[in-house]
Amino acid sequence: MKKCEFSCRHYLGIGEGNPFLALEKYGLAVREANNAKPNVYDFPTLCGWAVGNLTKGRDINNSAALIGEMDEANKCGLTKYTKVAVRLEPDTYCYRDGNTEQGWWDDAHWSHFGHLVKPYETFAKWCAAVKERNGIPFTYFQSSMPSDDFAKAHPDWMLDNDISKLNLFHRHHLPYVHYDYTDPVFKKYMLGVWQRLHRDGMIGIKFDYPESAWNPNGGFEDSTATTTSAYRQLFSLCRQGLGSEGHIHERCLGENNAPPLDVCAGIVDIQRNAGDNNKFEAKYVSTSGLRWYKARSVFSYYPDSKSIHNHTTSVRQALFTMLALTSGRIELATPFEMLTPDMVHEISRIYPMYFGLKSPRPIDAFIGSKDPKVYDLELTKDWHQVALFNGEYTKNEVSVSMSKEMVQGGLALDATASYYVYDFWKDTFVGKLKGTETITASLDSLNCAMFSVHKVQDVPQLVSTNRHILQGWMELKDIKWNEAAKTLSGKASVIGGEEMRIVVASNNWKFVGVKAEGATAKWEKHPAGDALKILVLESKDTKEVGWRISYKK
Question: Exposed (0-12), middle (13-18) or buried (19+): which is 330, by Cβ within 10 Å?
């Protein structure tokens, strides 16, 4: 008798009245039960298909054009801050004669249909060229939509070994004939496909139309298989072939009677939770933001590619901020060749991508907000990053109480303490607020404010930086106060040729001097007054810089 693939586990949460904490405990239980360790999408991705089809730009969905885009990514300076991914999408459909790349999945067919072109007519050549340009190669598979000629060549690899309905007209994503992912010979073939692509240098795979592989009517070669186990096999084979470092992407929309499920937890890294679109709207923040309790711990989520060149500066800043916080993935429908210096600067403020197990809580989710406006990322008990987002189409005031309980839409901070609040995008000190006060922002449509909130200490402390939207969490480390030496010190990841500005609160201590290792350092006054000072670090090369500020009482 065949051993069952699954073990049955149950989760029962009792005694936690806070829905945020209860759901987060559940998310961590799902992570543990499935040994989920999703890979980080620590880079923006350019979708070759979206530029031409959603943004209506020129067709760049071929290997040569995407190498040109990699050159543009380097030229505009984006790769100074982060690697970038480009995704080639071989997406020929059945409407001509029923024959496509699907099922064959080899260089000859990808070339025949115009996706692999000279001088990059093989995936091995294309992947090597992408990596030479500091890039990450991705491609695309249709989950279970076989080419007619492939099905005719391998009828025994299809469900029920039946291709009698192959020639019936159908919409491209609703074929009557599907692969049988439980067939042992087909499984061996598919594993070989993934292993070959892995040898070619492929890093990531997007699976489109996964509902086509969800087959509740059965027809499996393996008589013990279930709908779920057969569906998982598609992704399991890919994971086995690409290895643990491969990035596996499941478009999960619940189409064609297939519910959006967590059954690929522990296999898949990211799920797409919106239909084809290149828009920025509140609902695309909410689709991921309301899954915060599983985001990053079990999966990443994202709402498809986004055009950025058609937005104002403040809307772009909100797009990058809110998707970085709620999604952890930025996919672009604007080609690199269209990026301005301002756009590069804005994108660079979200990398490296935050990927802690905690995701920002949609604080007003349980008080009647369809699209939450307040997101709170608790980095430590005394350090919160708070985003206020106006998803409406009119100007609005968005606010959050610092001391109200979470279930009441507050941050649940210490009402007896005081907090420094600093606005990242405006580079403005909001003030030293009492814990009983409210953080408020007047925001235009689709705008956000990103605040760093630090509990006031008795010694000098970090308040903000200009490098990253998390204002010190990603780009600084080992920050500590040495009571004996009277120094505040740390290490900073400084970008070559760019000033890093670190805002520090002196807290009634007197500045003595500053030192930096391998970089120039200077001390500046802050426009807000004597309570704050700015440590400015600059290096010709990108490097980690140790710094130390000396004080006296």
Answer: buried
Its pTM stands at 0.95
State the Rg of the chain over Cα. Answer: 26
With 0-12 / 13-18 / 19 or more C-beta atoms within 10 angstroms meaning exposed / middle / buried, residue 493 is middle
CA distance 332 to 99: 30
> Would you call 198 helix, strand, or coil by DSSP?
helix
The pair of structure tokens assigned to 281 is 């709207």
Adjacency order of strands within the sheet including 500-505: 461-465, 500-505, 529-538, 520-526
Q: What is the pLDDT of residues 424-448, one digit of tens each?
A: 999 999 999 999 999 999 999 999 9
Task: Provide φ and ψ at 146, rounded to 5°.
Answer: -65, 145
pLDDT at 232 over 50: yes
What strand order describes the sheet that includes 204-208?
A: 300-302, 270-272, 247-251, 204-208, 135-142, 84-87, 45-47, 331-332
Whole-angstrom Cα distance, residue 402 to residue 397?
16
Helices (H), 171-301: 184-200, 227-242, 282-289
Which domains does the chain carry?
19-348 (3.20.20.70), 360-456 (2.60.40.1180), 457-553 (no CATH)
What CA–CA distance (Å, rounded) separates 390 from 224?
51
CB within 8 A of 368, min separation 6: which ones? Answer: none
**Residue 1: pLDDT over 60:** no
Identify the H or E element spanning 332.
strand 331-332
Q: How do 383-390 and 45-47 pair as beta strands?
A: unpaired
Pairing of strands 247-251, 270-272: parallel
Q: Could you give the C-alpha distances from 245 to 90, 137, 204, 272, in angstroms and in order?
A: 22, 13, 9, 19
